[in-house]
Amino acid sequence: MGSIRFENSGKTYGNGPGAFLALEGVTLDVADKEFVAIVGPSGCGKTTCLRMVAGFESVTSGRVLVNGKDVVAPGPDRAVVFQQFALFPWKTVEENIEFGLRNKNVPKGERRDLVQGALALMGLESHASAFPHQLSGGMQQRVAIARAYVLDPAVLLMDEPFGALDAQTRVVMQEELVRLARVQPRTVLFITHGVEEAVYLADRVAVMTRRPGRIKEVIDVKSVRTGEKWDDLERIEDVMDTESFVHLRTQIWKSLREEKIAAN
Amino acid sequence: MATEASAVGLDRNQRTDEKAVSASVAGRKLPGRSKWRKMLARPPVISALSVAAVLLIWFAATSWFQLAPAGRFPTPQEFWSSLRQSLFAGYAGGTLVGHVWNSLRLVVIGFACAFLTGVPLGLLMGSSRTAEAVINPIFSLMRPIPPLAWIPLAILWLGLGSAAKVMVIWLAAFVPSVINSYTGVRGIDKSLIAAARMLGTPRGRMIGEVIVPGALPLIFTGLRLSLQAAWTTLVAAEMVGALTGVGFVLNVAQQDIYPSMILVGMLTVGVLGWSTTWALAVVERRMLARWPQGRS
Amino acid sequence: MALTTGRSLLLATLSLLLFCTIWFLLPATGLVSEQFLPNPVAVLERIVTLIGDPFAGATLPTHLSYSFGRFFGGFLLAALIGVPLGLMMGWFPTLDALATPLLDGLRFIAPIAWVPFAALWFGTGVGGPIMIIFAGAFPPCVINAYQGARHVDVRLIEAARMLGTSNIRMITQVIMPAAIPSIIAGLRISAGLGWQSLIGAELIVASTGVGFMMVQAQANVATSTVVAGMVAIGVVGLLIDILLRRFERAVTRNR
Asked: Where along chain C do its domains lie?
């Protein structure tokens, strides 16, 4: 089980007259097994939100809670998938996935089974002993996702995970992630600047304002998805063609555009 | 240095290909060259010819036509007899093998000391800001003094024996080890550190499986430079004051005005430098087999 | 985790203070003799004395000027020959193939090992030391110019070739400007190695210069003079590097 709670969270860098206010009064609840995407204009602090949940940065006002407890430091209960994959280049695919389990002192036999399961889940069986640099970007990101999933984290934090991939690979990975969310649902906080990606993947989409970032509005996608039976459609482009999808996309896009215009 | 050279060599070949491609694109591929000329124009052949030419010039200038003043430039025959003399009869108080053994021993000990102290210190400075703030000023204060300038002080402190030499070799090899280990840690991708923290990596494993491997390519670069510095310093130290060793051979040969023996000493220094660098490169290649190429 | 600049400045000051205190106290408390390790004040006094009174035939500034003159000669020679050679090796594959095996062979011979031949061929006054500095400073000049020339953007070369650029113009107008940062980085390494080779040469042969002064001091067990020489060498080496770094910044700024 895993839930995330931003309680009037704020972040200021530095102090005195040179202080830089990045986030102000962010309030958002992510329920157990819910997939929430955050979109916002660039530089609005959406990545900072994620880094605060991960424990890489601390809040300077308000609170950030995971399962009702304040976040203090990074830990394997909050697995992060980075935009730049962040795989250890000197470890094989298998060793990368296994690394977090070793840190959790999972016994060897159990570890092997879990790694095998994760490899199978992401379709990586034939690459188990390859090194990251021998794989394509899409495959590397699969490894990173497997590395996060295998820890069975309370929450999964994804920071523009498909931002560094080419357009075709990105589509494949998005479909993969939807499939994964159905097989093994997790609490996910997903940062992106792609509106379509957010609508396609998330149960709810939170739109952030320009800096200092706040949550401007939260749009419910799940009710539309179940109502319009998107899950029956095989491919991403079929979903994106539905009227309901286009409508939601336009609504979020307009909201975002107001912020972009105001920022300039 | 050997790997540096081979890396450059590899790069060189690729570049030549690129050049060839672009040359043919530009329509400048030279037509009508005979097979022989093509054969001769290949880089390895030219390189072999170049070495042969230098040897030939040496023979011609000293031995055949006596263009170079005798007594200042050794002839190949003199070199050969000096080499035999140093190997079998001995020179400067011992055979060449004995001198080599003494020098090699000191370099290995000094280098090992530098490796065992410098790399951990560099890693510490790279991973802890406090350690960096404390150590860096002292380090920066001592660094402009070239290791060779320590030789007189080392002799005053420790005499003409092995200890003074190990001390200056250690000093010389220490600096590149520290700097490169430090830079190596600093150069580790920040997201890798973040990933390791996110994965709950305990401190010991963080050092052993993230920081050291991340810095390893640059650690080896540092060790290569350290080894080079170790040899330079040892030769200098042995020439300033010693009773044995390759540098001592050079010193005695200089005082005896014995050019062919000087050449024997220099070539010995070169062979020693080359072979130890080669040995280090073998270790490096083994250790870095897992690392993606071109990261160092 | 992160340190503020204020705190790290404080730590740096404290650590330097501690270093100087230990250096001062070791001989002062009699733990080691002054003969073994003169205290920093004694070294400073010695430097001041050496500026006026000659030791080993000359005052410290005179020794330094001898050393620097030799250094400058050898370094200039290495740069003037090494940089053009490296650039040409980068452009002409034949020259590359000719020169590389010889240079690779020479690189493994420590510059100091040239001392006997340098003394034999050019004497121990000016010529010999210059040759040794040259031996130390030459390889980085060649290597960096070569690598700089090698890493010039292929599109630049193709564009120049399309415009019918001659070989000479190609080197002077295209390759050299593009290789400047690498060349200057090489000059800095060269200067460091050249300066250190000079000190080595002066320790072994030569009858003037800071290195010679230090050897004489060592023979007379004048430890404070030895340390004074080390300080002078360090300061001049640092000044050379600062000058070259200035030069580097001035050149790279206009790009």
From this structure: 38-253
Q: Give the span between the Cα atoms of A114 and A118, in whole angstroms.
A: 6
Nearest chain B CA: its distance from A79 CA (Å): 6
Tracing tokens 């206010």 back to the chain, one arrives at A21
CATH of A4-77+157-169+186-263, one of 3.40.50.720, 3.40.190.10, 3.40.50.880, 3.40.50.300: 3.40.50.300
Q: Hey, where are the domains in chain B?
A: 93-290
**Cross-chain CB nearest to B191 (options A84, A131, A147):** A84
Entry field: residues in chain B = 296
What span, in angstroms and rounded, lies between the C-alpha atoms of B3 and B287? 13
Task: Please tell me the class of the B93-290 domain.
Answer: mainly alpha
Q: Do B136 and C93 touch (CB under 8 A)?
A: no
Residue B9 has pLDDT above 80, yes or no: no
Does B93 lie at the interface with C, CB-CB under 8 angstroms? no
Structure tokens at B219: 């650690």
Amino acid letter for position C116: P
* CA R_g for chain A: 19
CATH number belonging to domain C38-253: 1.10.3720.10
A103 touches chain B (CB under 8 A): yes
The torsion of the CA quartet A169, A170, A173, A174, rounded to 10 degrees, works out to -150
Exposure b/e, A174-205, CB count within 10 A at least 16 = b: bbbbbebbeeeebbbbbbbbbbbbbbbbbbbb
> What is this model's ipTM?
0.88
CA distance A114 to A92: 16
pLDDT digits 0-9 by tens, A61-79? 999 999 999 999 998 899 9
Domain ranges of chain A: 4-77+157-169+186-263, 84-152
Which alpha helices (DSSP H) does chain C contain, by range? 5-28, 40-52, 60-91, 93-107, 115-122, 127-150, 154-162, 167-169, 176-204, 210-219, 223-253
Any C CB within 8 A of B232 CB: yes
CA-CA distance, C164 to A214, in Å (whole number)?
59
Q: Centre a 10 Å sphere on the Cβ of residue A113 and count the other Cβ atoms it contains.
A: 10
Model confidence band, residue B27 (pLDDT cutoffs 50, 70, 90): very low
The rounded distance, in Å, linking the Cα atoms of B165 and B168 is: 5
pTM here is 0.84
